[in-house]
Amino acid sequence: MRQLKRSVLETIVVRDGLTIEEIDLFEAVDSWATKECERQGLAADGASKRRVLGETLVKALRFPTMKQKDFASVVLDSKILTPDEIVTIVKCLNSVLTSPAGFPETRRTGFKVNTQRCCTYDNFSTTSFSRSSFINSCTCILNFSVDKDIRLHGVCLFGRENLSHSIDLAIKDTNKRQVMVSKRGRFSSSSLRCKAGPYNGFEVMFDRGIALVKNTLYCIQAEVTGLVTRRPYGRAVDHVHCSGVAFAFNDQEQFPELLFTL
After folding, report:
1. Judging by beta carbons within 10 Å of its beta carbon (0-12, 13-18, 19+), is residue 136 exposed, middle or buried?
2. Domains of the chain by range and CATH?
3. Rg from Cα positions in the chain
4. What is the pLDDT of residues 118-145, one digit of tens each?
5. What is the reported pTM?
């Protein structure tokens, strides 16, 4: 990458379909900028590196999708970002940002997050639900906490096979009484499978992982429009261990799985 022209490097960095960790891409860009400063006889400080890179290229880097540890240990030392940008991105990484970060906040479509799936049921009902068992809308609520810091990437909800549902979902930090993320959209149900077995439902994925802090109570609330069953889908659990994380649940009926990373 060091031999590339800046215009070619920019063309690569702005691509949405790159299959690379954002921190690895940044390290390559920073290395190119350092060598380019040396070639031009400039001191390879943050201001010079940013100048040779150009604002379009810098603003195409997806700092809000990085791990906080990587951002702190690698990006900060490069001195490429301004103090205001650093504050904004740190807030974004901690899910307390109330306005856009100024950098893309979604992962590149070519990179797939290897999420863990936490099943909130130990079995599903084998009873067939008739149409009279369903209602047209409902409010679904899940209160939960974890014993380790995680990033929540999405949730699953029950649905009726091959039907679509309109969702207005929010995740709240109940201690701070603030909405951490909201998501609206229309989702189609299909056959899914988790540890408890197969079920009909759909995934609601967030644009970026939401940082959840251990021993904090969170509430997921979803307004669902579409056919939703009146009856329980099986036996939900109060506690479960998944990939070394202990989850504690209450008021749980409609959310069969949580998708997360450590």
Report:
1. exposed
2. 6-93 (no CATH), 116-261 (2.60.120.820)
3. 22
4. 999 998 876 656 666 677 888 999 999 9
5. 0.71
